[in-house]
Design goal:
3 strands, alpha+beta, single chain, three-stranded antiparallel β-sheet, about 20% strand
Length: about 70
């Protein structure tokens, strides 16, 4: 999977990295390389399934939609 990352120098020093397609997925680092490592870890955690996410009522429907 390839995701676009925005890497921006911070006013306080270091870098902020965010992923526009994953709301709230943001990280930072003292160096460009550290910020990129940190955002990669943040993406992995963001996309990791959580057990609570997979609990649905017996009446739940599972559908697919095309966009």
């Amino acid at each position: 999977m390839r995701l676009r990352v925005i890497l921006e120098p911070s006013e306080e020093g270091g870098y902020t990295a965010l992923v526009p397609s994953l709301p709230g997925c943001i990280s930072e680092g003292e160096t460009r390389e550290e910020a990129l490592r940190n955002i990669q870890e943040a993406i992995e955690l963001y996309l990791e399934p959580v057990d609570d996410d997979m609990r649905f009522s017996e009446r739940a429907e599972f559908l697919e939609v095309a966009v």
